Amino acid sequence: MKPIVLTFDIGTQSLRAVLVSDSGEILAKAQRRFEKPYVSPHPGWAEQDGEFYWHNICDVSNELREKSAELWDMVQAVSITTIRDTDICVGIDGKPVRPAILWLDKRECDKEIHIPARNAMLFKAAGMSSAVSLMRKISHCNWIMENEPENWKRTYKYMLLSGYMNCCFTGEMKDCTANIVGHLPYDNKNGKWLTPKDLTWCLFPIPAEKLCELCEPGDVIGHITGKASLETGIKEGLPLIATGSDKGCETIGLSCTTPEKAAISFGTTATVQYTTEKYIEPQKYFPPYISAYKGRYNPEIEIYRGYWLISWFKKEFAEKEVAEAEKLGISPETLLNQRLKEIPPGCEGLVFQPYFTPGVAMPNARGSMIGFSDQHTRLHLYRAIIEGINFALMDGVKMLEKRMGTVTEGIYLAGGGSQSGEICQITANMFGVPVYRIQTHEAAVIGSSMIAFTAIGRFDDLPEAIDAMVHIRDTYTPDMEIHKIYDKIYSDIFTKIFGKLEPLYNISKEMEEK
C-alpha cells in the first residue's frame, strides 16, 4: 500500500483535515468553518477559547475517518500547520490558562516597560525607538504580565497555537523553529530562544523556563497518544512530524524554494514570500522567518488586511450581488469576480491603498482611495481593492528583489483569492510576469505533507518531493500593454500616496487617541 499523510490546517476562519497521497493528490477532506472565528470582550480584542481548536480538530478528524475508512489505515504520519502569532498560556497540566489571543488582536499595554539604558541607546542610534516602543505595547505576553499577573504566574509554557496543538497530539510541549512567528524572544537567524544578554530580549521578557523546547522541520515531535487517539480516531503511535506555519508551508507547497520564484498568498492577510539560503532582512532590522525548508529563510512582506477587504466590501457594499448570487446558486465572490471584466485596468483613475491595519513598519498607516468621479460604481470600488492589494504587494516584491539582488521570474498563487481566474490574470498583467496555480488551492497542506513524506523516507529530500507532488495546473501570461498601464499607475500615483497622506494619518491617529 502506498503511504498517506494526514495533514491538519488551522486557519483564521476555518480548519481542515486532509488525506494526501505521495503524488500530491487530495484524496479526502473534512472542513469546519468557524461561526465565530474569535470573540471581542473589548473593542479591538480577538480571543478564542483555548480548547476550541482542539475540539474542532477532533470533530473533523473523526468525520474524515468515517467517510474515508478505506484510506484511514494507510496513514503513516500526521502533520499540522497553523496560523501564526496566536498565543496560548498553557498550565503544567497541558490545559489553557486563559483564552488564546489571535494574531489580529489590537490590545496594547498601558505602561511603559523598562528598557535597559544601553539597549535604549542602541535602539535610538538605529532609529528604532518608536518601532521598539510599539512592539512592546502590542505584544500579548507583555499585556498578560501587566494585566493578568495571576494567569501569568500559572503559565507553565507560553506557546503559539502550533505548539499547543503538538502538545494535544503527543503530550510533548515542543514546537518547530519554522513555526515561531510572533512576538516572542526568538533568534530568527539561528533558530533559538534569545537570552537576557541579547539586545531585543527586553521587548518580550519571557523567562526561559516558560518557553518550550524547539525542533527543526522534518523532526518527529512525538507520537499520537492513547488519549489523542480516542478523541481523534487517529491510530495511536503514529508520528507527528514538525513542518511549519501556514504561510511557510504554503511557500514550499507552491514549489517556491529559490529566490526567482515569488509565493503570493491571497488570504485574510496577503503576503509575498521568498525562500533564500542566506539570511536576508526583508526590511532593515526586521528578520526573515525560518523556512519550513530546513536550512533556508523566508523574507516576507505582509498586507495585514489583505483579502479580508473582500469580506468587508461584500458586507458593506455588495448587498445586491449577495442576493443575486444566492438566486444563481453561486458565491457572491464568484459573481463579483465575473464582473471584474466590466471595469478597465486602472479603474478609470480610482486608486486604492490597502493599509487598513497599521504595523510596526508603518505605525500610522490608514487605508485610502483617491480619484473618485461621477462615473465610478461599486464595481469600480471592488476592482480597485483587488488592484490596490496587488500594488502593495508589488511594492513588497520590488523591496525584496532589491535586498536579495534577484529578479522575480514567476509568481505562484495560493489563498482564497487565487481561486479566481480573473484575479490571477489581473495579477499577471500587473506584475508583468507569468502567474501559476498548482493542482489545488490547498498549498499549505501540500507543503506540510511533503515534509512529512520526506521524514518517513518516501522521498530522499524536499526537491524530490516537490517534483512528485507539485503540478502546475494553470498558467496566466501577462498582457504587456496592460502591464505598462499598471506600471505607470504604480510609479506615478501609488508610490506617492502614502508620503503625501502621512501627515493626515498622523493627525487622525492623534485625534483617535484623544
Chain-wise SSE layout:
Elements (H helix, E strand, L loop, with lengths): L3 E7 L3 E8 L4 E8 L13 E2 L3 H16 L1 H4 L2 E8 L4 E4 L9 E2 L15 H9 L3 H10 L1 H8 L1 H6 L2 E4 H10 L3 E3 L9 E2 L4 E2 L19 E3 L4 E4 L2 H7 L6 E3 L4 H8 L7 E6 L3 E4 L15 E2 L6 E2 L1 E4 L4 H10 L1 H10 L3 H7 L12 E3 L14 E3 L7 H27 L5 E5 L6 H11 L3 E4 L4 H13 L6 H8 L2 E5 L3 H34 L1
Parallel strand pairs: 1-5, 5-14, 9-12, 15-22, 22-23
Antiparallel strand pairs: 1-2, 2-3, 4-7, 6-8, 10-11, 13-14, 15-16, 16-19, 17-18, 20-21, 23-24
Helix pairs in contact: 9-15, 10-11, 10-13, 11-12, 13-14, 14-17, 15-16
Give a quick rundown of the structure.
With 514 residues, the chain is α+β, with helices and mostly antiparallel strands. It contains 17 helices and 24 strands. It has a six-stranded mixed β-sheet with strand order 3-2-1-5-14-13, with helices on both faces. It has a six-stranded mixed β-sheet with strand order 19-16-15-22-23-24, sandwiched between helices.
Detailed description of the structure:
By secondary structure, the protein is of the alpha+beta class. 39% of the residues lie in helices and 19% in strands. It contains 17 helices and 24 strands. Strands 3-2-1-5-14-13 form a six-stranded mixed beta sheet, with helices on both faces. Strands 19-16-15-22-23-24 form a six-stranded mixed beta sheet, with helices on both faces. A two-stranded antiparallel ribbon has the order 4-7. α14 links the parallel β22 (410-414) and β23 (435-438). α11 (319-328) packs across α12 and α15 crosses α16 (462-469). The longest helix has 34 residues, at 480-513. It is globular, with a radius of gyration of 23 Å. The chain starts with a strand and ends with a helix. The model has no long low-confidence stretch (mean pLDDT 94).
